[in-house]
Design brief:
This protein has about 475 residues and is mainly β. Helix content is about 5%, strand content about 55%. The chain folds into three domains: about 120 residues, no CATH class; about 60 residues; about 280 residues, no CATH class. Strands 13, 14, 16, 20, 21, 22, 23, 24, 25, 26, 27, 28, 29 and 30 form a 14-stranded mixed β-sheet that branches.
Length: about 475
């Protein structure tokens, strides 16, 4: 028996395969060569596929094909194990059979052209040697050269055979050496790109009761070029390290910040530092398909709405700026959610006066441990504005400046609001900026920012003033 290269963490997930291999795999879907398929899917575009198939092997060396593997397989991660069998060589044939690939592989070969007379319907055949396929097909017919044009005339090409390295489906070819003849179960395991998942959350916020209803969905996406039929599916919340991560483009993310990281243990199965989300039933993950499965359904968790404005540096704005509309909640047990939240997009809805839920914004969260405080920015406020102004900037000595700021906060709503006013940019390189005086007490969030929790009356304004001393 042989087992070839696979990551230690993924081996831990695959330990259940030996138990599965004791009985025949289920009958695969029509047309599929797969056997009993298990898929362990991670959130950073990587998945472990385990496929248990029954093989009928002769004694000695034999070449065995495994069609219906992922077209985005990482061949260096393939592991094949079967009783009384060793692997001699393996090849992954991913050059798929298409009209263009068939013509490209026929360069240097002779094919038959069949032309149909549009007027009479009569067919004529002639042999042609394919010279080149570079933006078009160049043929040698008898003593002349011809270009096969796509001009709508009825011409078709007949090939004598299919090239051996073209496959109708992605296929793994393995040369095996068996010490005995007979039927046995073989477990094929490999890593693949193109199969991933993320969490999506639908959140209905009730401002009157200060609660949210949260529906969590697992969204599966398959872009592997292969369908996985009736697969046992296990989802892993966490991004495992991979040696080809630097080859994968990852767009910049702007996740919603955790105001406080949680310290509660979630009631979820874990593997090392990752949470596991097994699907209750087998599922078919079809190629080029998006599938959603519910994993969280919570009613009446505690939540509140608020506002936040961040002034990025000690500077003036010429016009009042909108404060951010914030939805704040905790995924603690006491808060009602009581679960670790996999990374994904939270979409927020609020009922209008007619009772109809309306979309009010969305933002992304990263993997969030249970017990965390989350502050989700859902958009810009219409009625709550902030105008920061530099009233004075004085040089007190060669390396000492004082900046006096005035922040005017306006509220056009018919009820008071609380705005978290954040002054950032207090920790520039080679400088130290501190609050020297202020009209109300601030909190220093970190070295770079201070925050004031400002109550603004209904249909009114509030003013905060502060002086900052900067030294270098």
């Amino acid at each position: 028996m042989v087992t070839v290269r696979i990551a230690v963490l993924l081996l831990a997930v695959s330990t259940s395969a030996s138990a599965i291999a004791q009985s025949d795999p289920p009958v695969p879907a029509s047309g599929s060569a797969q056997g009993d398929v298990s898929a362990t899917i991670y959130t950073n575009d990587i998945a472990l596929i385990q496929d248990i198939r029954r093989l009928d092997l002769p004694a000695g060396r034999t070449r065995q094909s495994f069609p219906d593997v992922s077209a985005t397989i990482r061949p260096e991660t393939v592991s094949l194990s079967a009783p009384d069998t060793t692997v001699v060589e393996q090849n992954f044939d991913y050059d798929l059979l298409t009209p263009s690939s068939l013509m490209e592989k026929a360069v240097g070969e002779t094919i038959t052209l069949v032309r149909t007379n549009p007027a009479t319907g009569a067919e004529t055949r002639e042999r042609a040697k394919v010279l080149a396929v570079n933006g078009g097909v160049v043929l040698q017919i008898a003593d002349h050269i011809e270009v096969l044009r796509d001009d709508g005339l009825p011409v078709r090409a007949i090939f004598d055979k299919i090239p051996t390295n073209l496959r109708a489906r992605p296929t793994l070819s393995v040369t095996l050496a068996s010490t005995r003849a007979g039927s046995r179960l073989a477990t094929l395991s490999y890593l693949t790109r193109g199969l991933g998942w993320q969490a999506d959350y639908v959140t209905l916020f009730d401002d009157k009761t200060g609660t949210i209803d949260v529906q969590g969905w697992i969204t599966l996406r398959n872009a592997t070029g292969t369908s996985f039929d009736s697969a046992k599916t296990l989802l892993v919340a966490g991004e495992v390290a991979s040696d080809d991560d630097n080859q994968t483009f990852r767009p910049n993310r702007r996740p919603a910040p955790m105001r406080r990281a949680g310290t509660e243990s979630a009631n979820r199965e874990q593997l090392g530092d990752f949470y596991l989300y097994p699907l209750k039933e087998r599922t078919t993950i079809a190629d080029k398909q998006t599938k959603q499965v519910s994993f969280l359904d919570v009613k009446g968790a505690k939540a509140s709405a608020g506002y936040e404005y961040r002034n990025a540096w000690l500077g003036t704005q010429t016009e009042p700026q909108s404060a951010g509309s914030m939805l704040r909640f905790a995924n603690s047990a006491a808060g009602g959610l009581g679960d670790a939240l996999p990374a994904g997009t939270v979409r927020v809805y609020v009922r209008d006066q007619r009772g109809q839920p309306q979309f009010t914004g969305e933002n992304r969260i990263e993997h969030t441990p249970q017990g965390s405080d989350i502050s989700l920015r859902t958009g810009d406020a219409f009625d709550v504005k902030v105008l920061p102004v530099v009233e004075a900037h004085t040089r007190l000595s060669e390396n000492h400046w004082r900046t006096t700021m005035r922040y005017t906060i306006s509220n056009a709503r018919a009820k008071p609001v609380v705005v978290d006013l954040i002054q950032a940019g207090l920790d520039w390189t080679w400088t130290d900026t501190r609050v020297q005086a202020e009209s109300q007490k601030s909190e220093r969030q970190n070295a770079d920012s201070a925050v004031w929790h400002v109550t603004v009356p209904a249909n009114g304004t509030a003013v905060v003033t502060a002086s900052f001393d900067t030294r270098n």
